[in-house]
Amino acid sequence: MSAEHIELIRAMAVFGGLSDSALSWLLDRTHEREVDTGECFFESGQPADSLYVLERGRVAVLRSTEDGLWQLAELGPGDCFGEMSLIDFNPRSATVRAVEPCLAIEIPQAEIHALYEHDLKQFTLIQMNFARELSRRLRRADELVCQTLKQAAAGHRYST
Q1: Quick one: which of 4, 45, 48, 108 is 20 to 30 A from 30 by CA?
Q2: Quick check: is 160 in a domain?
Q3: β-pair partners for 75
């Protein structure tokens, strides 16, 4: 991968603090994936085997419920997705669909775990960064839940 790819990855929180050598080592084991408008990078329920870093285009993160399909987020260049399943080893929890032609770096789960053997310190740093990113997303989700509850309750607050 090129110096552009290293800079794109370096700017992301989940790869923050990684050494140049670890980034190069990891990127040498990745490939690019193109996805056309309307096609999916992956669908909810599928096994997880990669995370993606979006280089070009936009994607919708979608969650299906009995009430229909809900858009949780829209992501653009520099955003990553798919890391949650790499942490908890569960199937994909959402569908990620291209809303315009996309190009992404696909980082296989096996290569992230191979970093463990290659450089334990850098592997540990990535895992900590994943945890921080998931924590940030959980905080945002908690805030949205709280706002929704406040709107639904219209003043019926829980008191101690």
Answers
A1: 45
A2: no
A3: 59
140 burial via Cβ count (<10 Å: 0-12, 13-18, 19+): exposed
The Cα–Cα gap between 5 and 118 comes to 21
Q: What's the rounded mean pLDDT across residues 10-23?
A: 86
The tally of domains found in the chain comes to: 1
- CB-CB neighbours of 149 under 10 Å: 12
Domain boundaries, position 37: 3-153
Single out the residue of 88, 92, 98 nearest to residue 64, CA to CA.
Answer: 92
| Residue 7 in tokens | 């800079």
55 backbone φψ class: left, alpha, beta (φ>0; ψ -120 to 50): alpha
